[in-house]
Design goal:
Elements lengths: L24 E4 L3 E6 L4 E9 L5 E10 L9 E3 L4 E5 L4 E8 L8 E11 L2 E13 L4 E6 L22 E6 L6 E5 L5 E7 L4 E5 L1
Parallel strand pairs: 2-9
Antiparallel strand pairs: 1-3, 3-7, 4-6, 4-8, 5-7, 8-9, 10-13, 11-12, 11-14
Amino acid sequence: ANESGSTPRAELRLDYQLHEARPGLTPEPTALEIGVQQTKTASGKLTITNKGYSAAQNVQIQLLTREGGTPPAWVSLASSPSIGALDIGQSTVIQVDARPGTDVNDGYYQLQLKISADNDPGGTVPVTIAVARDGQGGVRFKLVDIYTNTLDKNGQLIPGLAGATIKLQNEALTADIRSLTSNDQGIAEATSLAPGNYRWRVS
């Protein structure tokens, strides 16, 4: 500093470690959800980006059951399982197609995408496929609060919470948002919903 000339004002200790530069295969999103109707086709996509410090060599993608077995024949990878090299910052898109026939029962099917490279252990991305025969479902809410089953000012029993707003959003199809309002019984219903997982919020 100017005030002390060449005399040190302080000394700081700096510790560091050197590591081998490695790739970092990162999926986005970290889970894949697909809703599909029997005899129809639906797809889900995710992006794998190398966010590490060296190129990933011989990147491979496998579609497996959660137990590591062979997936059903009606689910497949639309993209090549062999990606090859993925440079630093480079991305690739993986697509999963689902084409259930009439012999596939309604329900949720749990799979996984295994991501690996010669110089990176990679990881897995959970895949959930919801299959529905008619491609539609419904939900019914019954809302109550501390005044439910007590008497109102007219001496009538309050059956539920009326006038509450419910926002319902499909997790896979985020643009699919429904707004419901509970009636005087505290009930709100939605019909013709695509199969899949939904988030809801009541206000």
